[in-house]
Amino acid sequence: MKPVIGLAVGRGTGTEVAAVFERVLGALARLHGTEIGVLRSPRTYHSYVSLRAEGGVEAVRRLTEEDAGHYEDFCRTQAALGTRAVFRTAINAQSLYLVRQRLQAVKVDALPLGDGSSSLLLVRDQAQGFYTGENHHLDGVVRRTMEFGRDLTEKVLSYAVERAWRQWPDAGPARVVMAYKFHLLDGVLDSWVTDIAARYDVPVGLFQPDTVNRNLIAHGLGDRTVVVAGNEWADIMHVVLLDRFGSDRQENRCTENVHLHPDVHGLTEYQTVHGSADDLEGLDRVNPVATVRAAAAIAQRYGGCEGAVGEAERALALLAERGVGTPDVGGRHSTTAVVDALLEALDCQQPVWKTPLAMSVRADAS
Length: 366
Fold this sequence. Notes:
Blueprint: E1 4-10, H1 14-31, E2 37-45, H2 48-52, H3 57-81, E3 85-88, H4 93-103, E4 105-112, E5 119-125, E6 134-138, E7 141-145, H5 150-167, E8 175-179, H6 188-197, E9 204-207, H7 209-219, E10 225-230, H8 231-246, E11 254-259, E12 268-272, H9 289-302, H10 308-321, H11 335-347, E13 361-364
Parallel strand pairs: 1-2, 1-3, 2-13, 3-12, 5-10, 8-9, 8-10
Antiparallel strand pairs: 4-5, 4-11, 6-7, 11-12
Protein backbone atom coordinates (compact mmCIF):
# COMPACT_ATOMS: atom_id res chain seq x y z
CA MET A 1 0.00 0.00 0.00
CA LYS A 2 1.35 3.41 -0.96
CA PRO A 3 2.20 5.87 1.82
CA VAL A 4 -0.06 8.92 2.21
CA ILE A 5 1.07 12.35 3.39
CA GLY A 6 -1.28 14.95 4.86
CA LEU A 7 -1.24 18.50 3.48
CA ALA A 8 -2.62 21.60 5.22
CA VAL A 9 -2.58 24.94 3.40
CA GLY A 10 -2.80 28.46 4.81
CA ARG A 11 -3.43 31.76 3.08
CA GLY A 12 -0.77 34.20 1.97
CA THR A 13 1.72 32.24 -0.13
CA GLY A 14 0.36 28.91 1.16
CA THR A 15 -1.13 27.84 -2.17
CA GLU A 16 2.15 28.52 -3.97
CA VAL A 17 4.18 26.70 -1.30
CA ALA A 18 1.81 23.72 -1.42
CA ALA A 19 2.20 23.52 -5.20
CA VAL A 20 5.99 23.43 -4.82
CA PHE A 21 5.69 20.67 -2.22
CA GLU A 22 3.49 18.49 -4.43
CA ARG A 23 5.68 18.99 -7.51
CA VAL A 24 8.90 18.11 -5.68
CA LEU A 25 7.37 15.19 -3.77
CA GLY A 26 6.00 13.79 -7.03
CA ALA A 27 9.32 14.22 -8.80
CA LEU A 28 11.19 12.37 -6.05
CA ALA A 29 8.61 9.58 -6.10
CA ARG A 30 9.03 9.19 -9.86
CA LEU A 31 12.79 9.18 -9.52
CA HIS A 32 12.44 6.24 -7.14
CA GLY A 33 9.75 4.47 -9.15
CA THR A 34 7.13 4.70 -6.43
CA GLU A 35 3.93 6.49 -5.49
CA ILE A 36 3.20 8.84 -2.61
CA GLY A 37 -0.38 9.90 -2.02
CA VAL A 38 -1.27 13.37 -0.74
CA LEU A 39 -4.43 13.96 1.31
CA ARG A 40 -5.23 17.67 1.50
CA SER A 41 -7.31 19.33 4.19
CA PRO A 42 -10.46 20.83 2.64
CA ARG A 43 -10.08 24.08 4.60
CA THR A 44 -7.71 26.89 3.70
CA TYR A 45 -6.52 28.27 7.03
CA HIS A 46 -6.08 31.96 7.77
CA SER A 47 -2.88 33.91 8.09
CA TYR A 48 -2.84 36.84 10.50
CA VAL A 49 -3.16 39.28 7.59
CA SER A 50 -6.15 37.48 6.09
CA LEU A 51 -7.82 37.35 9.51
CA ARG A 52 -7.52 41.10 9.94
CA ALA A 53 -9.23 41.55 6.58
CA GLU A 54 -12.28 39.60 7.79
CA GLY A 55 -13.47 42.30 10.19
CA GLY A 56 -13.16 43.26 13.84
CA VAL A 57 -12.05 41.51 16.98
CA GLU A 58 -15.06 39.22 17.25
CA ALA A 59 -14.54 37.92 13.70
CA VAL A 60 -10.86 37.30 14.43
CA ARG A 61 -11.72 35.41 17.64
CA ARG A 62 -14.32 33.24 15.92
CA LEU A 63 -12.22 32.38 12.88
CA THR A 64 -9.14 31.73 15.02
CA GLU A 65 -11.02 29.12 17.02
CA GLU A 66 -12.62 27.62 13.89
CA ASP A 67 -9.24 27.24 12.19
CA ALA A 68 -7.72 25.72 15.32
CA GLY A 69 -10.57 23.27 15.77
CA HIS A 70 -10.55 22.21 12.13
CA TYR A 71 -6.80 21.70 11.97
CA GLU A 72 -6.77 19.78 15.23
CA ASP A 73 -9.50 17.48 13.86
CA PHE A 74 -7.54 17.06 10.62
CA CYS A 75 -4.43 15.98 12.53
CA ARG A 76 -6.39 13.60 14.73
CA THR A 77 -8.06 12.07 11.67
CA GLN A 78 -4.76 11.64 9.86
CA ALA A 79 -3.23 9.93 12.89
CA ALA A 80 -6.24 7.60 13.18
CA LEU A 81 -5.86 6.69 9.49
CA GLY A 82 -2.21 5.79 10.04
CA THR A 83 -0.75 8.84 8.31
CA ARG A 84 2.68 9.50 9.77
CA ALA A 85 3.50 12.94 8.36
CA VAL A 86 1.75 16.19 7.48
CA PHE A 87 3.21 19.12 5.57
CA ARG A 88 1.71 22.43 6.66
CA THR A 89 2.24 25.90 5.22
CA ALA A 90 2.20 28.88 7.57
CA ILE A 91 -1.07 29.75 9.34
CA ASN A 92 -2.08 32.30 11.98
CA ALA A 93 0.05 31.80 15.09
CA GLN A 94 -2.83 32.07 17.55
CA SER A 95 -4.71 29.19 15.89
CA LEU A 96 -1.52 27.21 15.56
CA TYR A 97 -0.57 27.50 19.23
CA LEU A 98 -4.01 26.35 20.30
CA VAL A 99 -3.41 23.17 18.31
CA ARG A 100 0.15 22.80 19.61
CA GLN A 101 -1.13 23.09 23.17
CA ARG A 102 -3.91 20.55 22.65
CA LEU A 103 -1.73 18.03 20.80
CA GLN A 104 1.37 18.67 22.94
CA ALA A 105 3.82 19.62 20.20
CA VAL A 106 7.57 20.12 20.27
CA LYS A 107 9.59 21.59 17.41
CA VAL A 108 12.85 19.81 16.61
CA ASP A 109 15.84 21.10 14.65
CA ALA A 110 19.40 19.74 14.55
CA LEU A 111 21.95 22.45 13.77
CA PRO A 112 25.55 21.75 12.71
CA LEU A 113 28.18 23.42 14.86
CA GLY A 114 30.46 24.16 11.95
CA ASP A 115 32.64 21.07 11.57
CA GLY A 116 30.06 19.14 9.57
CA SER A 117 29.78 16.30 12.07
CA SER A 118 28.82 17.76 15.44
CA SER A 119 25.47 19.34 16.09
CA LEU A 120 23.19 21.12 18.50
CA LEU A 121 19.73 19.64 18.99
CA LEU A 122 17.05 22.27 19.63
CA VAL A 123 13.80 20.96 21.11
CA ARG A 124 11.28 23.78 21.48
CA ASP A 125 8.50 23.24 23.99
CA GLN A 126 5.41 24.49 22.13
CA ALA A 127 2.89 22.69 24.34
CA GLN A 128 2.87 24.94 27.40
CA GLY A 129 3.88 28.32 28.71
CA PHE A 130 3.54 31.92 27.69
CA TYR A 131 2.61 31.39 24.03
CA THR A 132 -0.21 28.98 24.86
CA GLY A 133 -3.46 29.58 26.73
CA GLU A 134 -6.79 31.30 26.29
CA ASN A 135 -7.72 34.97 25.90
CA HIS A 136 -10.43 36.62 27.97
CA HIS A 137 -11.63 40.06 26.87
CA LEU A 138 -12.70 42.54 29.57
CA ASP A 139 -13.35 46.28 29.32
CA GLY A 140 -10.18 47.54 27.64
CA VAL A 141 -8.18 44.54 28.86
CA VAL A 142 -7.12 41.23 27.34
CA ARG A 143 -6.31 38.66 29.99
CA ARG A 144 -4.37 35.65 28.79
CA THR A 145 -4.23 32.56 31.00
CA MET A 146 -1.67 29.83 30.52
CA GLU A 147 -0.15 27.00 32.50
CA PHE A 148 2.86 24.77 32.98
CA GLY A 149 2.44 21.14 33.97
CA ARG A 150 4.77 18.68 35.67
CA ASP A 151 3.69 15.71 33.57
CA LEU A 152 4.01 17.69 30.36
CA THR A 153 7.45 19.01 31.35
CA GLU A 154 8.57 15.44 31.98
CA LYS A 155 7.11 14.32 28.64
CA VAL A 156 8.98 17.06 26.75
CA LEU A 157 12.26 16.40 28.55
CA SER A 158 11.96 12.63 28.08
CA TYR A 159 11.33 13.08 24.36
CA ALA A 160 14.34 15.40 24.06
CA VAL A 161 16.67 12.86 25.70
CA GLU A 162 15.28 9.99 23.61
CA ARG A 163 15.60 12.03 20.41
CA ALA A 164 19.17 12.95 21.33
CA TRP A 165 20.09 9.27 21.52
CA ARG A 166 18.72 8.86 18.01
CA GLN A 167 20.74 11.89 16.93
CA TRP A 168 23.97 10.55 18.49
CA PRO A 169 23.45 6.76 18.79
CA ASP A 170 27.06 5.97 19.68
CA ALA A 171 27.71 8.48 22.44
CA GLY A 172 24.33 10.01 23.30
CA PRO A 173 23.85 13.59 24.48
CA ALA A 174 26.60 15.27 26.48
CA ARG A 175 24.25 17.59 28.35
CA VAL A 176 20.79 19.14 28.32
CA VAL A 177 20.36 22.90 28.69
CA MET A 178 16.83 24.08 29.52
CA ALA A 179 16.03 27.75 28.76
CA TYR A 180 12.86 28.88 30.57
CA LYS A 181 11.70 31.95 32.51
CA PHE A 182 11.47 29.77 35.61
CA HIS A 183 12.00 32.66 38.05
CA LEU A 184 8.40 33.67 37.37
CA LEU A 185 6.98 30.36 38.59
CA ASP A 186 7.59 30.33 42.37
CA GLY A 187 10.39 27.78 42.06
CA VAL A 188 7.96 25.09 40.90
CA LEU A 189 9.57 24.43 37.50
CA ASP A 190 13.01 24.29 39.12
CA SER A 191 11.74 21.71 41.59
CA TRP A 192 10.14 19.59 38.87
CA VAL A 193 13.24 19.60 36.68
CA THR A 194 15.53 18.69 39.58
CA ASP A 195 13.36 15.67 40.36
CA ILE A 196 12.89 14.57 36.73
CA ALA A 197 16.55 15.06 35.77
CA ALA A 198 17.70 12.67 38.51
CA ARG A 199 16.39 9.80 36.37
CA TYR A 200 18.77 10.48 33.47
CA ASP A 201 22.45 9.75 33.10
CA VAL A 202 22.93 12.98 31.15
CA PRO A 203 23.40 16.25 33.10
CA VAL A 204 20.38 18.56 32.92
CA GLY A 205 20.62 22.25 33.78
CA LEU A 206 17.76 24.78 34.00
CA PHE A 207 18.79 28.34 33.13
CA GLN A 208 17.24 31.74 32.58
CA PRO A 209 17.22 32.68 28.86
CA ASP A 210 19.61 35.60 29.41
CA THR A 211 22.08 33.24 31.10
CA VAL A 212 21.92 30.88 28.13
CA ASN A 213 22.57 33.84 25.84
CA ARG A 214 25.59 34.98 27.86
CA ASN A 215 27.02 31.48 27.77
CA LEU A 216 26.44 31.26 24.03
CA ILE A 217 28.32 34.50 23.48
CA ALA A 218 31.16 33.66 25.85
CA HIS A 219 31.65 29.94 25.27
CA GLY A 220 29.38 28.69 22.52
CA LEU A 221 27.77 25.29 23.00
CA GLY A 222 29.71 22.07 23.21
CA ASP A 223 29.28 19.06 21.00
CA ARG A 224 26.14 16.97 21.52
CA THR A 225 24.26 19.62 23.47
CA VAL A 226 20.47 19.46 23.67
CA VAL A 227 18.68 22.76 24.22
CA VAL A 228 15.12 22.35 25.51
CA ALA A 229 13.49 25.77 25.49
CA GLY A 230 10.23 27.53 26.08
CA ASN A 231 8.69 29.48 23.23
CA GLU A 232 9.51 32.90 24.62
CA TRP A 233 13.24 32.21 24.04
CA ALA A 234 13.31 29.63 21.26
CA ASP A 235 10.97 31.50 18.92
CA ILE A 236 13.34 34.46 18.81
CA MET A 237 16.61 32.57 19.09
CA HIS A 238 15.99 29.89 16.45
CA VAL A 239 16.96 32.23 13.62
CA VAL A 240 19.99 33.43 15.63
CA LEU A 241 21.15 29.86 16.25
CA LEU A 242 20.74 29.12 12.54
CA ASP A 243 22.95 32.06 11.69
CA ARG A 244 25.56 31.39 14.39
CA PHE A 245 25.79 27.61 14.22
CA GLY A 246 23.96 26.42 11.13
CA SER A 247 25.25 29.04 8.71
CA ASP A 248 21.76 29.10 7.27
CA ARG A 249 18.76 31.39 6.77
CA GLN A 250 15.24 30.75 7.98
CA GLU A 251 13.98 31.08 4.39
CA ASN A 252 15.94 27.94 3.51
CA ARG A 253 15.04 25.83 6.55
CA CYS A 254 12.33 23.33 7.39
CA THR A 255 11.66 21.80 10.78
CA GLU A 256 9.65 19.04 12.42
CA ASN A 257 6.82 19.46 14.89
CA VAL A 258 6.36 16.22 16.81
CA HIS A 259 3.05 15.67 18.60
CA LEU A 260 3.36 13.96 21.98
CA HIS A 261 -0.34 13.57 22.81
CA PRO A 262 -1.22 9.85 22.86
CA ASP A 263 -4.15 10.37 20.45
CA VAL A 264 -1.78 11.50 17.69
CA HIS A 265 1.50 10.03 18.91
CA GLY A 266 3.79 9.34 15.97
CA LEU A 267 2.32 12.03 13.72
CA THR A 268 5.03 14.49 12.66
CA GLU A 269 4.23 17.82 11.05
CA TYR A 270 6.77 19.45 8.72
CA GLN A 271 6.82 23.17 8.06
CA THR A 272 9.04 25.81 6.59
CA VAL A 273 10.65 28.12 9.14
CA HIS A 274 9.57 31.19 7.17
CA GLY A 275 6.05 32.57 7.57
CA SER A 276 3.08 33.15 5.28
CA ALA A 277 4.71 36.11 3.44
CA ASP A 278 1.34 37.64 2.52
CA ASP A 279 3.09 40.54 0.79
CA LEU A 280 4.45 38.06 -1.80
CA GLU A 281 1.12 36.34 -2.48
CA GLY A 282 0.54 35.83 -6.19
CA LEU A 283 3.92 37.30 -7.22
CA ASP A 284 5.68 33.94 -7.82
CA ARG A 285 8.59 35.13 -5.68
CA VAL A 286 8.47 32.99 -2.53
CA ASN A 287 11.72 31.15 -1.82
CA PRO A 288 11.02 27.41 -2.43
CA VAL A 289 14.20 25.99 -0.82
CA ALA A 290 12.71 25.21 2.60
CA THR A 291 9.73 23.52 0.95
CA VAL A 292 12.04 21.47 -1.27
CA ARG A 293 13.90 20.27 1.81
CA ALA A 294 10.67 19.39 3.60
CA ALA A 295 9.46 17.39 0.59
CA ALA A 296 12.79 15.53 0.41
CA ALA A 297 12.79 14.73 4.13
CA ILE A 298 9.23 13.41 3.95
CA ALA A 299 9.93 11.41 0.78
CA GLN A 300 12.95 9.75 2.40
CA ARG A 301 11.52 9.13 5.87
CA TYR A 302 7.94 8.23 4.98
CA GLY A 303 7.77 7.63 1.23
CA GLY A 304 10.36 4.91 0.71
CA CYS A 305 12.68 7.20 -1.30
CA GLU A 306 16.02 6.32 0.25
CA GLY A 307 18.59 9.00 -0.52
CA ALA A 308 16.02 11.68 -1.44
CA VAL A 309 17.53 14.24 0.95
CA GLY A 310 20.96 13.87 -0.65
CA GLU A 311 19.45 14.08 -4.14
CA ALA A 312 17.62 17.29 -3.29
CA GLU A 313 20.72 18.81 -1.69
CA ARG A 314 22.84 18.02 -4.77
CA ALA A 315 20.21 19.64 -6.99
CA LEU A 316 20.05 22.73 -4.73
CA ALA A 317 23.85 22.99 -4.75
CA LEU A 318 23.84 22.88 -8.56
CA LEU A 319 21.27 25.68 -8.66
CA ALA A 320 23.38 27.76 -6.27
CA GLU A 321 26.43 27.25 -8.49
CA ARG A 322 24.43 28.48 -11.47
CA GLY A 323 23.07 31.50 -9.58
CA VAL A 324 19.47 30.27 -9.78
CA GLY A 325 17.49 31.73 -6.89
CA THR A 326 14.66 34.02 -5.84
CA PRO A 327 15.23 37.74 -5.15
CA ASP A 328 15.44 37.32 -1.34
CA VAL A 329 18.73 35.41 -1.75
CA GLY A 330 20.11 37.72 -4.42
CA GLY A 331 18.71 35.86 -7.44
CA ARG A 332 16.51 37.05 -10.26
CA HIS A 333 14.32 33.99 -10.77
CA SER A 334 10.70 33.31 -9.98
CA THR A 335 9.55 30.51 -7.72
CA THR A 336 8.40 28.54 -10.74
CA ALA A 337 11.70 29.00 -12.55
CA VAL A 338 13.68 27.81 -9.53
CA VAL A 339 11.50 24.71 -9.13
CA ASP A 340 11.68 23.98 -12.88
CA ALA A 341 15.47 24.10 -12.69
CA LEU A 342 15.48 21.91 -9.61
CA LEU A 343 13.28 19.25 -11.21
CA GLU A 344 15.53 19.24 -14.26
CA ALA A 345 18.55 18.71 -11.98
CA LEU A 346 16.73 15.87 -10.21
CA ASP A 347 15.88 14.20 -13.53
CA CYS A 348 19.58 14.13 -14.40
CA GLN A 349 20.33 11.98 -11.36
CA GLN A 350 20.45 8.22 -11.73
CA PRO A 351 17.15 6.60 -10.66
CA VAL A 352 17.51 4.31 -7.66
CA TRP A 353 14.97 1.71 -8.83
CA LYS A 354 14.66 0.00 -12.19
CA THR A 355 10.89 -0.52 -11.96
CA PRO A 356 8.56 1.55 -14.20
CA LEU A 357 8.07 5.10 -13.02
CA ALA A 358 4.78 6.05 -11.41
CA MET A 359 3.11 9.39 -10.88
CA SER A 360 2.33 10.77 -7.45
CA VAL A 361 -1.37 10.60 -6.70
CA ARG A 362 -3.38 13.16 -4.81
CA ALA A 363 -6.65 12.40 -3.08
CA ASP A 364 -8.72 15.30 -1.77
CA ALA A 365 -10.39 14.96 1.62
CA SER A 366 -14.13 15.06 1.65
